[in-house]
Structure formats: C-alpha cells, structure tokens
Amino acid sequence: MRLLIDAGNTRVKWALTASDHPVPVWEAQGSVTHDALAGLASEWKSHAIDAVWISNVAGDVLAKRLIHILAELGLAANALHWFASLPACGGVRNGYREPAQLGCDRFAALIAARHHHPDRDLLVVNAGTATTVDALTADGQFTGGMILPGLGTMARSLAINTAQLPPVSEVHLEQTLADNTRQAIISGCISAQVGAIARAFAQHPGQSPWCLISGGAASFISPHLTLPHELVPNLVLAGLQVAALMETHA
What we know:
This protein is an alpha/beta fold. It has helices spanning 40-44, 60-72, 104-116, 151-161, 181-203, 218-221, 235-248; strands at 2-7, 11-17, 28-33, 51-56, 80-82, 88-89, 92-94, 122-127, 130-136, 141-149, 210-214, 229-231. The protein starts with a strand and ends with a helix.
C-alpha cells in the first residue's frame, strides 16, 4: 500500500492506494488541519503501508511531526520519499529560473495535469491558502505562473485588518455589485481570483488552453469562471502517484 501526502499550509491531505495506475482509485483518503495531525496515526495503522510519498510546503516543523507519526507506524526513513521539484519529471519540463525553487505541490499538480490531458495546452490552478496559476504547453513545458493570496486568505485579511469589516466564514456570492459589506467582501475576493485566472489564461503561450482547477476553494471559484475548465480533485496527490510509479518502474 502506498501512502500519498500533500502537506499544505493549512491542511494535510492524504490518500492510500494499492493501484499502479497513474490515476488510481483511492482505498482511503482524508484531510485534516495541522492541529489535528496526531489523529492520522489511527487512520493509517490498519493499512499495510510500505511506501510514503510526501509533498510538503508547510516547513520543517510539520515534516518532523509527520516523520514521528510515520515512525510510530514502523515506517523507516528509507520508506519516505520527499517529493521535490526537478528540471524534468513525469513528462513536464520545469521552466522556472531555478527549478528547485518551484513549489513541489505546484510541480506535482503540473505532472498530474499532463497525465489527465497529455498533448494539450493547460492552465493549472491550485486554490488553497494561496492560489497558484501555472501554464503548461502541449509538449510538456511549464512556462511560468503566478501566486496570489487564496480566497479564504483574502477574506480573512480584510476582516482582520479593517475594523469595520465583518469576518467571512462562508463564501456564497449573491451579486457582483453588492449592497452589503459582507457580500462586497466576498464579491471582491472572488473577482480577484477569477480575474487573475482569466489574465493568466489570456497570456498562455499555447492555443485554446484547457483549465484544470483543484484545491479547497476550487468549488467556490469555478462557478464564476467563464473560460473552459474542469474541477479535478487532489491534483497534487495524483501527481505524487505518477512520480512514484515512474521511480518504481525506472
């Protein structure tokens, strides 16, 4: 059994699979906040895990916590594969000025996107704590992207830093030009996300790109996008699966 972990800045997403298919059916999956990380041991202990692939953008402290949990399950360090951005992997050529500086979650999502739609110009959006928007050409070249505060991050920033604005706990847009402060915040935040994605789409070097959008805020953003797109859950985990298969069969 292979355990795949996407350790983000707010949540840790995971999936278990015994499949050797690039887009497997998960045997089990879940998502927890950082403060609930300890509970993962009980989620995983009933499965015969022999390899773990991890994308971690949340830093060394979280990495150490994961190592401790996995050690409790009897998994040695050599069973843990810490995914990192490379100059090329999974049919994707990394066009970052310094390839290793590309977030490993973004690189994994690009790999998964290429396997979902090979030989097609793609725009890959990950909508989480931050929203990333990355361009991939039909021949597998990652040409660059953008990073902006995620939908929830934008809303919380306004609520924290502006005394007269109420916190926004749910995202439901009633009208673009709102007649109340709460809806005006939501409208502004969604419009910023949609506008960034549309701008990246217009600047894509390929022809008629197809947009894939994933992440916790994807379902809130998707209804407001007018460009051709689809929701694809767990792109990062799927990219880890592709990378794991490539190393296994190398």
